[in-house]
Amino acid sequence: MEGIFIKILGAFLTAILAFVVGMLYGGLRRKVIARAQNRVGPPIHQNFLDLMKLQAKRTNIAHGFMGHMAPVWIIIAAMTVLMFIPILHGNLWFENLTMKGDLIFLLYMMVFGSLGMALGAGQSGNPNSAMGVSRGLAQLVGFEIPFFLALIALMIQFNTTSIAVLMDHQEATGRWIIVDNPFAFIAALLASLGMFRYAPFDIVGAPAELASGPRSEFGGKYLGTMMTGGAVFAFIKLVMYVDLFLGGAGNNNLEGLAGTALGLVELLVKTFLLYMIPVFIGLVTPRFRTEQAIQFFWKWPTFFGILAIVWALYKNGTIG
Amino acid sequence: MVITPVHYIIAPLIAAFAIPLLTKIHKDAARVVPGIVLFYNVIVSFVLMKHIREHGMISEVLAGWQAPWGINLVVTPFTGYLASMVSILGFIIWLYGFRFKRTLKGGEIKFYEILQMMMIAGSIGIIITGDIFNLFVFIEIVGISAFSLTAFYRSRDGAEAGFKYLLIGGFASAFLLLGIIIIYTQTGSLNMAQIAERMPDVPQQMKIIALIFFLVALGIEAEMFPLNGWAPDAYSQAPTPTSATFAAVVSVAGVYALIRVVYTMFDVEGVNNYLMIMGFVSMLIAEIAAISQKNLKRMLAYSSMGQIGLVLIAFGIGSKLAVFGALFLMLNHGVIKSLLFMTGSYFIYNTEDKKIKSLNGIYKKLPFVSFLFGLGALALIGFPPFSGFWSKFYILMSAADEKYIFLIIGILLVTVIELTYYLRVVGRIFFAKEEGEPASHKPSVNAIIAMSSLALFIIVIGVYPDLIMPHIQSAAEALLDKSNYIQQILSLN
Amino acid sequence: MEIIAIILLILLVGSFLTYFVDSFNKKWTGTTAFLIVLITAGIFFTKIKSGYQFNFQLAGLDLQWGLTDYSYYFVYIILGLSVLALLYSIKYMEGKARLGYFYGSFILTVLGMLGVVISQDFVSLFFFWEIMTWASFLLVIYNAYYKIKTKGIKYMIFSAVGAYAMFTAIVFIHVHYDTLLISEAIAKGAFNFEQYIYIPIFLLLGFGIKAAVMPFHVWAPPAYAKSPMSFTTIFSGAMSKMGVFGIGLVFTSFYLSSNPENFFWVRTILGWMGGITAVMGTIYALIQTDAKKLLAYSSVAQLGYIIVGLSTGTQLGVMAALYLAVIHAVFKGALFMVAGAVEKQAGTTDMTQISGLIRKMPYTFVVALVSIIALAGVPPLGGFVGKWLLYEALITESNNYILVVVVFFSSTAAFMYSYRFLFGLFLGQEEKETEHVKEAPATMIIPMIILAIIATVAGAYPGLIFEPAAKAMQAIGFQDVTWQMSSLTNVWGDTTDLFLIAMLIFAVFIISFVFLTLKGLKKTRYVGTKDISTSGELPKEWENLTFQLDFFKPFERAAAPLYKMDMNKIWKDLGKNLEAFFGFFRKIYTGNGQTYALYIVIFLVVLLLFRDVLFS
Questions:
Q1: Which of residues 488-507 of C touch A (CB under 8 A)?
Q2: Do C295 and C237 share a domain, yes or no?
Q3: Which residues, at least 6 apart from A76, have a Cβ–Cβ distance to it below 8 Å?
Q4: What's the whole-model pTM score?
């Protein structure tokens, strides 16, 4: 009974953590970009203010059933994926359902939200939304390939498809996978640029061109929910990368609250550093057209992905 | 025994002379009497088949002269099978054509019916005769009837086709006669069994030259490439029942003659390969030619040549299974091709020309006929559950037994060609947008009965081939058992 | 009389009966056909159990009919889907011409398929295979009017080549192994790729063509798209699975084999053909503007996955193939029904003509949504299970890492056409032209909903399908197939707990629906699709805001090299050249009597000259 209680509480804790961190990172990004452009920029907590404003709004008009459902889909996707990602290694509070779903499941589940939003956007009838969806899906096919290659490399190098087992492995050997298979990390990192949809891959919701694309017909609570979902997803992606390549967090010997706190700090540091990579790249690059983006992903990242597989095969003794 | 093989010949001959007289009494006699005669032939067939199943083969000597001098008619399970088949199909074709020619003037209908009957009777004669000179005579009877029937419509094209047929038929007669003369000088006999018995003593060169003359002459009758130039024109210009008769009866008799000569009389090596190769070439060229035809009857004619090619291939393979398959295919081809010609002719009646492209959507006008045509097309290609499947199956099975893998692949690829052009026509009939007026020529009752009975045969044999297989089996055995044939005939007389 | 013969007889007589009912009263044709197949299914499932056998002699051959667990598995697909498709068909075909023809051929097709799976000897197999082929040909050309020459005939030619390849293999099995029974042929090693390797290759060719494997897939998209939708449901859902059935049968030797190295080449080649089929099917699906064609290409792609699964030869892989065979029948059946419903109600499935049907056909949309999610392989629906099994089989068991990426590429790109289908028909701008459209009648909706429910339940309890699939696998040479009711485990011990996932998603759904959307649903009013924020201006009524053409143009540009390889054109050119070649040969028959006479003389002379070569 207590176990279930801890689980439910843990799930809430995880959700709140993801929400807060995700929103803060979003604010941070705006700040960083502003500073780089020599502006003062909004405060870091600006995203919370935006959200509060949006939640306070009343929605009067709707664009049909799928429009209503889109935020729900995003929440489903965000919550489900969150439950299956190990936040802190071996921590009871953040264990959630980490052993119950593997990487393939996560890969597919992560698409769920985007598809839901795409459907909602589609029903609005706004051609900009549809265009954004079309570009988004095409780009998805671009970056998923190197990402998947990187994942396969990890799977065959460590004979597992479970993210938790990969973390166990890193803790046991004390070596991060970025060292064991650097090519996989490079491929995945390049893919992550597309996943975050910051410049140069921001054509999907290109503000000046498509009126923010898929989201353009959403407002009020729904837009707020989508923002929340986006923030949680940013957190999820970062944690996933940390878990996969950077040894995860929470691998300390401290007991109780102190251990958890230290783990969280470790997690924040790692995710923050990782997050800054797409943010900074986005700062200094212009925008790719969709086909350029796809072709980019099918060139170097894919090359590194294949290299990662070869490396993995070499490492586990299948070849060489 | 009351009924003897000679009834096959006598009845039509008497009728042929009687019909002009009987028409004086009643004008419909010209149409009815051939039917009675042909029906009588069917009865004769059944009685004889029953008899040979119980008592073995029959060899009837005419005019009391014993073989080798006399003229003898032989009914073995093999010839009996073919004769029954021909007479039954002949009867059905008569039934189909019974009211077909009503529009013609009385004088012409008389000749049409007589010629048609003589053609069928002559074919039966070819099959049951045991003597090569008589074979020649019967071939001439069939030929002359066929030439006249080809030119029956007295149109320009008909006359041209008839003349071509006559020209090439002339070659056939000449070469056949040459072959017979060589054989007669060498063996001193005209009786097939006796020739076969004496054949080992004939000098090899003589034997081969005689064989070549036979092959060319009978190859013309059997529509073998490149000797079959007459066929497309003749098939397409003759009245439809005659076209059906060409396919179902005359070509069967032609193939029979060829096979009888090759299998029974001669004992030459290499002739099997010759049959197989020429059969395949005939089939290939005929089907290739058929695919680009624009005229329905010509297309069916080429298709017939293709089928006969397949029969020859099977005879070329020569194993028991192959012969069985060939005989089965001859039956199927006779039935199915008759059905196709019969149904096809209704299409032609209801269109301005004989072109395939004017068949568009004719299903709406003639639903039942279209249905039967589709059935026939599927059966001819060899789809189960129709009878055509089994004959093709056994032929390919026998080819596989001899490990002719490329032959099998070749046959099957040619079948794909065949399927293409047949299904194009079927597709047109059923699915193209229809043009023109509603049908003015609905099929008459007798035609429907004739066509339905053929269709019924196709389906029943397709689902349950065991019904007919024992007969074909014994026919195949009888053909292959050459020594028994010689012995029996020479001792029976 | 044997029960199986009675069942086939019911179908055969039923086919003719339906034909005649049509000429008697057109209203009852569909119902009659439905009842006949329903009764057949009823008798079959109650009277015949797996392991049933019936030996008899026909045409001098020993024939055997019967059911193994493997064939029974396919019977579920065939009869289950047929019953639903016929129920759907009653209203779908209402008012169309030649109903007797349609239903008669339909029942014959069912007869053929049923016959194929109950055949335990090759002659019956071929026999029924051909019945199935021509009966389905009649249905393919049902709608074809002017296109018979290209569409229908293409289907038939490919099918015939396949069937005849199979037939060649069969006669040589008879010659070399002296048997016509499938089980004996397997026992004697006919498919072992050791001695007569052309036998299994020809058989695979025959089955592969039916399963629309590259490069023989060109018949499939037009045939699927042009047939009446209620038949395409069966065509793509069940009949293409006959090819899968056959490949599985041939591969039984592989699965049983003690030295699988013999099969390396065949399984690699077949696997890659499957993979390329999946990619080509997918990328062509996403550029279609006709929803039916889109689904047709998608079917080809899905069959590619199944082939990949079969070719792995591992437990998960074959399980994936068999699972996908069922789930593909389910969701693709539902999708074709959706397309048919739209066609029936709106008059066309051209996505450039219609859009925004969601409010007019809500039930149809829900079915489409569920089926598309299953097709895309997104959890928690049934499609995901198949994808998971396939990937895990390729990664963990068969070590085919490049192929798995190819498959993954295809199934990711499938998101695009999945969205395209939903967007094109149901979402987007509501057009004036579609204002009159109403929801489809109940008898069309019910079978769709049944299929959607199956696809949903399979997502949480795939064990319901695993159970017969495991039995089927044991029948084709696997031992101790393990499966769980609602979770997936690979050989490395990693699990995915589907029940948990489904529950979680359901819980989150309920919570967020109640707290977030329910209020919104009540308090807001619908404003139509013209009331949108385009740069702050309200678009006018006459402004065209529909975005349907060149939907994935950026992707097309990015993947341009993939589109260059057009198999269709290659085959078409081949056909044209062949006909030209034939035309040349036809000229042999000049129509001139003198030429013919000359032929005869030349022929005679040639024979006489070469008499010593020819005869001896």
A1: 490, 492-497, 500-501, 504-505
A2: no
A3: A112, A113, A116, C505, C508, C509, C512
A4: 0.91
Q: CB of B192 within 8 A of CB of B132?
A: yes
List the single best residue of C98, C171, C615, C616 to mutate versus B (max B Cβ within 10 A). C615
List C residues 339-358 in contact with A (Cβ-Cβ < 8 A). Answer: 356, 358
B 196-225 residues inside an 8 A Cβ radius of C:
204, 208-209, 211-213, 215-216, 220
Cα–Cα dist A270/C514, whole Å = 37
Q: Does C554 touch chain A (CB under 8 A)?
A: yes
Residue B185, amino acid: T
Which two three-digit tokens encode residue A280? 């900074």
Token couple for C97? 């011409």
Residue of C134, C156, C616 with shortest CB distance to B269: C616
Contact B274, C615 (CB under 8 A): yes
Residues C263 and C215 in one domain: no
C-alpha C489/C-alpha C388 separation (Å) is 10
A159 touches chain C (CB under 8 A): yes
Q: Is B295 helix (H, G, I), strand (E, B) or coil?
A: strand
- Residue B191: phi, psi to the nearest 5? -80, 130
Provide the residue ranges of all domains of chain B, joining segments of one domain with +. 6-492
Q: Residues with Cβ < 8 Å from B414, sequence gap 6 or more?
A: B283, B284, B287, B306
Q: Do residue C586 and residue B415 have CB atoms under 8 angstroms apart? A: no
User: How many domains are there within chain C?
Assistant: 3
Residue C309 domain boundaries: 259-531
Q: Is residue A320 part of a domain?
A: no
Distance CA C228, CA C231 (A): 5
C601 within a domain of the structure (yes/no): yes
Q: Does C588 touch chain A (CB under 8 A)?
A: no
User: Before C215, cis peptide (omega within 30)?
Assistant: yes
Which sign, positive or negative, has the C-alpha torsion A138, A139, A140, A146?
positive
Neighbouring chains of C at 3+ CB pairs under 8 Å are: A, B
d(CA B145, CA A272): 103
Partner-chain residue, chosen from C137, C600, C614, that has the shortest CB–CB distance to B270:
C614
Cα distance between residue A154 and residue A111, in whole Å: 21
Q: Please check whether residue C470 lies inside any domain of the structure.
A: yes
Q: Which domain holds residue A26?
A: 2-315
- List beta partners, residue C100: none
Half-sphere exposure of A203 (CA within 13 A, CB side): 21
Question: DSSP string spanning C509-551?
Answer: HHHHIIIIIHHHHHH-EE--TT---BTTBPPPTT------TTT
Q: Are residues C301 and C210 in the same domain?
A: no
Task: Give a yes or no: residue C86 inside a domain.
Answer: yes
CB–CB of C558 and A295 under 8 A? Answer: yes
For chain C of 616 residues, list the mean pLDDT of each consecutive stretch of 10. Answer: 86 87 82 91 89 84 87 91 92 84 90 91 90 87 65 80 88 86 84 82 89 85 86 89 90 80 84 90 89 91 91 88 92 92 88 86 92 89 89 85 90 90 87 84 91 91 90 86 84 85 89 84 80 72 81 87 81 84 80 83 87 78
Show Cβ contacts of residue C416 under 8 Å, excluding neighbours closer than 6 positions. Answer: A134, A137, A138, A141, C286, C552, C555
CA nearest to C529, candidates C427, C425, C419, C424: C427
Reported ipTM: the value is 0.93
The pair of structure tokens assigned to C614 is 């020819």
Question: What's the Cα-to-Cα distance from C428 to each of A63, A206, B144, rounded to whole Å?
Answer: 10, 20, 77
Q: Is C582 close to B270, i.e. CB distance below 8 A?
A: no
Given CB atoms, is C526 within the 8 Å cutoff of chain B? Answer: no
If asked whether residues C237 and C349 sit together in one domain, one would say no
250-289 in B: which are within 8 Å (CB) of C? 268-271, 273-274, 285, 288-289
